[in-house]
Design a protein that fits this description.
By secondary structure, this protein is of the alpha/beta class. It has 2 domains: 67 residues, Hypothetical PUA domain-like, domain 1 (Ribosomal Protein L25, Chain P); 156 residues, Alpha/beta knot, CATH 3.40.1280. The protein contains 7 helices and 12 strands. Strands 6, 7, 8, 9, 10, 11 and 12 form a 7-stranded parallel beta sheet that branches. A 5-stranded mixed beta sheet has the order 1-3-4-5-2. Helix 3 links the parallel strand 7 and strand 8. The chain binds S-adenosyl-L-homocysteine. S-adenosyl-L-homocysteine binds next to helix 7.
């Protein structure tokens, strides 16, 4: 059986004591049935992956002691995902998949046609942590606070290529290579698509390239996975 993996918000180093919170103790001792002396894998998003031993196991608390580093930190390439939040389950899916696909940062953006403006960043961040735990990652992408697309574009660093996924580009085959370089960000619009004003604004940016993701209109969650795959395939850490 593969080792249990746990994200801890605590520095990791040889002999480091890591206190567990209630949920972590419940998960390790109640759900996974680990006891004192058991060894699991822990990571914190900065210090790589470590073997850690359970040194205290109680119902609502516990302590781990980190032993040896088993893997260094493997940060994904400098790729951000910008997406317009959709319904809750699909938004959760997007965050989970972006973490698995190796996005470094996940930014909900509010666009003219954004379907859902209520975003619980703490919940989404917890989904990113869970996805990193189960996918063997040592890095957890930051889920940023939602920001209006026009504000984000006003402060945009032109060194970061913007791969704008736009169904209006269906049929066009140019554009993809120029958009695919690092650092980069992928932009996925809402179910209602980008507005004419947003398209014009993006078109005027040198670092932005509108690309097609094939001849069919994809749901936003599918589009996010497809776009990250394309970029990773060309410039990623695969
Ligand atoms: N309302 C639009 C579809 C939006 S799909 C329509 O019906 O025409 C949601 C988002 O997914 C889009 O904003 C775009 O970013 C992305 N997307 C979906 N299919 C795409 C495709 N074939 N090419 C590029 N982007 C696509």
């Amino acid at each position: 059986m593969s080792k249990v993996r746990l994200y801890v918000d605590h520095p990791l180093g040889a002999g480091q004591t890591i206190p567990l919170d209630r949920d972590q103790a419940h998960y390790l001792f109640g759900v996974m049935r680990l006891g004192a002396g058991a060894v699991l894998s822990v990571f914190n998003g900065h210090d790589g992956e470590w073997d850690a031993e359970v040194t205290e196991a109680a119902k609502r608390r516990g302590t781990l002691t980190s032993l040896v580093q088993t893997r260094p930190l493997q940060a994904p390439p400098d790729l951000w995902l910008l997406f317009a939040p959709v319904k809750k389950a699909r938004t959760d899916f997007i965050v989970e998949k972006a973490t698995e696909m190796g996005a470094r940062r996940i930014c909900p953006v509010l666009t003219d046609h954004t379907n859902s403006e209520r975003v619980r960043v703490d919940r989404l961040q917890a989904h990113a942590v869970e996805a990193a735990e189960q996918s063997g990652g040592t890095y957890v992408p930051e889920v940023a606070d939602p920001v209006k697309l026009d504000r984000l574009l006003a402060d945009w660093d032109g060194a970061r290529a913007l791969m704008v996924c736009d169904e209006a580009r269906i049929g066009a085959v140019d554009g993809l290579p120029a958009a695919l370089r690092a650092p980069a960000a992928v932009l996925i619009g809402p179910e209602g698509g980008l507005s004419p004003g947003e398209r014009a604004r993006l078109q005027a940016m040198d670092c932005a390239t509108a690309v097609s993701l094939g001849p069919r209109i994809l749901r936003a969650d599918t589009a996010a996975v497809a776009a990250l795959t394309l970029w990773q395939n060309a410039h990623g850490d695969w």
